[in-house]
Amino acid sequence: MKHVLSKISYGIYIVGSKMDRPVGCIANSVMQITSDPSTVAISINHNNYTNEIIKKTGQFSVSILSEKVDPSIIGTFGYQSSRKVDKYKNVETEELAGLPLLKNSCGGFVCRVVATTETSSHTIFIGEVIAQQDGNSEIPMTYRYYQEVLKGKSPQNAPTYVPEESTDQTQSKKSVWRCKVCGYTIEADTLPEDFVCPVCGQPVSAFVKIEV
Ligand code: FE
User: Fold this and answer.
1) How far does the centroid of ligand 1 lie from the alpha carbon of residue 1, in Å?
2) What are phi and psi of 171, to 5 degrees?
3) Residues 199/184, Cβ–Cβ less than 8 Å
4) If residue 165 lies in a helix (H) or strand (E), which one and from where to where?
5) At 95, is the pLDDT very low, low, confident or very high (cuts 50, 70, 90)?
6) Do the Cβ atoms of 60 and 15 come closer than 8 Å?
7) What distance in angstroms lies between residue 104's CA and the mean position of ligand 1's atoms?
8) Residue 147's pLDDT band (boundaries 50, 70, 90)?
9) pLDDT per position as a tens digit, 32-88
10) Distance 195 CA to ligand 1 centre (A)
11) How far is 11 from 126, CA to CA, in rounded Å?
12) How far does the centroid of ligand 1 lie from the alpha carbon of residue 190, in Å?
């Protein structure tokens, strides 16, 4: 179903937190609520480890990703879990007020949680900005850019996730290949050896064929 809600604009962000080590995930739902004091709301899935750590520490950070961000960062932060992986291991990071922020982004900020609201699947954290980091002058990535230019998909934990409609097998004879790291899919009989995932940068060996 093509939903009218898909016309709402979003950005692409990394929401981070830190207890014994830094954790983080991709979020597209970040919005400013008030300007004085500067307050934002974010929406994070209950299943995300980052949600658990924000609740325990009462703090989160937001890095604003640019259109030129290395797509493998979206793959790492969007399609893996901080429960299992140190996502910041291969990313240039700096700390602000004790929380992790990307070093090379459009900028970022750190919030103290002042309220939370639970929905069936997501926690809405409302946070007051307590510190901010100036960023580069690149263009912040919108969710539309991510979908239309990078051909990215919503991970299952995203508020904007829509299950893919089942394909009519009588019409679709081509194979579908799925990136094991980020979930990106492409229709093709075969993938060339030098094919690289346009979302997360993984080589062709990261793709599995889905029978149709
Ligand atoms: Fe990928």
Assistant:
1) 25
2) -95, -30
3) yes
4) none
5) very high
6) yes
7) 21
8) confident
9) 999 999 999 999 999 999 999 999 999 999 999 999 998 888 888 988 888 888 999
10) 11
11) 17
12) 17
